[in-house]
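User: structure tokens for this one?
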Amino acid sequence: MKQSSFIIKPEQLLEDLKQEDIVVIDCRFNLQDRDWGYRQYINSHIPNAYYLDLEKNLSAPIKNHGGRHPLPINFPETLGKLGIVAGKSRIVAYDDSRFAFAARLWWLARYWGHEQVQILDGGWQAWQELGYPIENKIPGPRKSCLFESKPNLDWTIEHSQLQEHLNSQGVILIDSRDQKRYLGQSEPIDPIAGHIPGAINHPYLRVSDEQGYLLEDQKDLWQDIPDSNKEIWVYCGSGVTACVNLFSLEQAGLFKRAKLYPGGWSDWCSYLVNN
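Assistant:
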């Protein structure tokens, strides 16, 4: 897929829904009420959409280190159970959180080598506001298959790499959280407030407007990133909303230089607390 085709408009999805190769995935989630997203899905969703839970499907179990949402090594199995054929099936992910959770699925699918994945522009809100069909029927299981994954192992960095290259001239470190958390003025989740030394702040909410639509020119958001060979390392609290910035960097043509620190601030904190 070309970079512009990683976003799909609601009207296009409506037209494509009957195609056999498309798999729509509902990613709604609430960090304060972990069953909320599934309850919303059960109540109503885009026709024939399946549900994937951030913590049960899009993350691995928490350990001492690795952050609150470690990358799931069994994600190819999850895709296979949905009948998603590597390199062929189309995935369309949506949420109601300005891409926060849909972008996590988008990044994971591509990390495991599947480029045929899109995010619904405007998300669930746009779909409803346009009066498009919804249902509460849970779709039947698709014929499962073996998802032949080809992981892009060089798309991530670990704590040891970050520590080794801290303040490196060859790396631009991006903190995707809101400014108050970045500045250490507020920390509702992690035990320590602040940010990783040397990081600059690019809150993920800048990527979309208040209605949840992707801003037209994503390049404008990254004017402070020099046109150079420097790598761009992106993090957030736990590797979730950082994926929104990675999606934006893809739209801006900068993704080839970008890597995710999956553990994020929660992983960084775990070493400060335990040492």
